[in-house]
Amino acid sequence: MATASFHHPAPARPRHAARRNPIALAVAAVACLPMAALAQSTVTITGRTLGGVGITGFGDIPLANAPLQASVFASPQLADRGIESIAGLTRLDASLGDAYNAEGYWSMISARGYTLDNRFNYRRDGLPINAETAIALENKERVELLKGTSGIQAGTSAPGGLVNLVTKRATGSLRFARVGARQGGNLLGALDLGEAFGPEGQLRLRLNAAYEQLRPQARQSEGQRSLLALAMDWQPGADTLLQAEIESSHQRQPSVAAFSMLGSSVPAARGIDPRINLNDPPWRQPVVMDGDTASLRLQQRLAEGWRVTAQLMQQRLRTDDRMAFPYGVYDASSYECAQWCDRYAPDGSFTYWEYVSNGERRTTSAGSLAVAGEFRTGSARHVLEGGVLGSHYRGRFQDQVFDIAGTGRIDGSLATSPSAGYTSPSTNRDENNTELFVRDAVALAPQWQLWLGLRHTRLERRSQLTSDPGDGLEATAYTQSFTLPWFALSRELGAGTVAYLSWGQGLESEVVPNRARYTNAGQALPALKSRQLEAGLKHEGENFDGAVAIFDIDRPQSADFGTCSGDASCTRALDGSDRHRGVEASATWRQAQWTWQASAMRLDAQRRGSTVAAINGTRPVNVPQATLRLGAEYHVPALPGLALSANLIAEGDRVVLPYDQSVRIPGWSRLDLGARWRQTPDSTTLTWRVGLDNATDRRAWKESPYQFGHVYLYPLAPRTWRVSVQASL
């Protein structure tokens, strides 16, 4: 692990546990949205087909035709729901879930039940970035999500999904300002300014700036964040486009610590104040995250419809990761745990650990060169793209403090002094990736299309401790190469309707820790290749868009074998897999003044093939079997420009312990209400937005991640109002 960021999950706000099926309650609530007392004039809502989405890997081919499932979250959609972080995407798509999301820390989400790796599952304009930071969205045009195994787009990554952030490009004259407020005193101001220069507007600039005074409802979590970003587009000729952009962001805020089990029981969420922040001793320090990113892209159109694209990007992250961290119940003199090692004591007491990892530095450099175009072989038409992508990651850290400070209690009644500040080593990391890729969409016949992808990756990884602990832990270094295939077959069933079948692989790489207790210390395990089979049906029409997919993903797992109590007593090896099989569906229906949206997933996630028979067939921790997102928007005829909305989020129960399936948190549902009013006085467009999240102030445990060998419980956020107004010219 590179810096063992022992961070406590942020309490989301609790509400009363549903006593009936939460998904049934959600359906009933949306069905009962007020439909009476509304005028009967007609409003026509016209949809627009999404063009090529970069995350699909097939260039200009519309997403509706691509043989895969993907979601695109545009900036206006995020603004309507008050979403300002990656974690907020879980409110929009049923395939996404929370995975240790803490206020004041970086976002962590899951897709199709697998937690996305912040080091490998994120892209920025198609190039790999590190998402172990706070990501600002004010200068992002949209966020794209590729669902399933991502070998078609990534050399190494966790299965489930791949996130691509698309930055806003300079488009010409633009004047945009937004101010907003949230309950608790949160204030935001943002500017988006653009201008074109030259006789034909060949040079275009766009500036995005934002500042937010952070005042979440969770106590002792005040902070601030800022963003400054500049984008440039220069078109010296009809066939040449040069794009550059630079972004600098800053966030300083104490993170929010989560709750846990109390002894052998899960406390009732209705008895917990969701505004409590256990990270509240006077010696606690804020988490500081700074990020600078710069990129350059050249697109050159060639003869016969071919084009070449070259990109360069560098991301530099600087983090001070600090926290008063509640973790188990330990003896301060011996550092031993007698009973409650992975949870709090029955009386609500726990051990405070002081965690300080200052001066973390993460640098990612990436570049790609790709050629794309069309050609024919006989009667088959090919849309081909091929190229090379290279990336280098460098992580540099200092020795970290993770030391016992004293005893705390969930009611805040115990005063705790800081720790003695003993340090332990962290881990510096280096990684080089070189990826060769080719993708081909082959039109075999008027209705049939074959899709092929191949990616060859060579990786070199090295790690070294920041200091010598004297316990036999040494540096590691290894090199691996592998090739990942992907293919699909699709058929157009009618206008706007496509059916497909796909198969692909994803890959993760793991090295055995170089400790004396391992018989295979320092050796790389065989490539952890996940596999996915998916069948889907997609439709896009004037009034209805829909998609349904059945998927089967199998991800290898590794485990330790032996007593692991002394030298050469432990062997790490592959041990079965996590298999996630499910069905997901989404739909958008537009009728007169109404727009209805729905997203649902049913997931069967199980551990399989382990040599420990007792865990085979068990469901992974923090993975609900059923999730649902429902929304409705009504355009009020009597007040042109006014739209009223209601959105419901519902999830089934979640397992809390990896070894005891009987301990669970109940399923829950939540209602969000909102309104948007667009006015156009003179040449200015004003857009007013108001929202009431968790309108009924329900209490529940939102998620139950088991991280760093410890149980965490995050409460659902309490009822929160928000309001904003934006002006654009």
What does this structure look like?
The protein is mainly beta. The protein has a single domain, classed as TonB-dependent receptor, beta-barrel domain (Maltoporin, Chain A, Beta Barrel), CATH 2.40.170.20. Helix content is 2%, strand content 54%. It has helices spanning 22-31, 75-81; strands at residues 70-74, 96-98, 109-111, 114-115, 122-124, 127-128, 140-147, 161-167, 174-182, 186-197, 203-214, 223-237, 240-253, 287-301, 307-326, 349-377, 380-396, 400-409, 423-424, 427-443, 448-465, 476-494, 497-508, 528-540, 544-562, 570-591, 594-608, 626-635, 642-651, 654-657, 660-665, 668-679, 685-693, 701-703, 706-707, 710-711, 714-715, 720-728. The protein has a 22-stranded antiparallel beta barrel. Strands 1-7-8-5-6 form a 5-stranded mixed β-sheet. A hairpin with a 2-residue loop joins strand 30 (654-657) and strand 31 (660-665). The longest helix has 10 residues, at 22-31. The protein is globular and about 75 Å long. The model is unreliable at 1-50 (pLDDT under 50).
Summarize the structure.
By secondary structure, the protein is mostly beta strands. The protein is built from 2 helices and 38 strands.
The whole-number mean of residue pLDDT values reads 91
- Estimated helix fraction: under 10%
Distance between the termini: 49 Å
Beta-strand content bin: over 45%
Fourth-tier CATH superfamily name: TonB-dependent receptor, beta-barrel domain
Low-confidence stretches: 1-50
Backbone CA Rg = 26 Å
Structural class: mainly beta
Could you say which overall geometry the principal axes of the C-alpha atoms support?
Answer: globular
As for the CATH topology, it is Maltoporin, Chain A
Helical run tally: 2
Specify the CATH class. Mainly Beta
State the major sheet.
Answer: 22 strands, antiparallel, barrel
Number of domains: 1
CATH architecture: Beta Barrel
E-strand count:
38
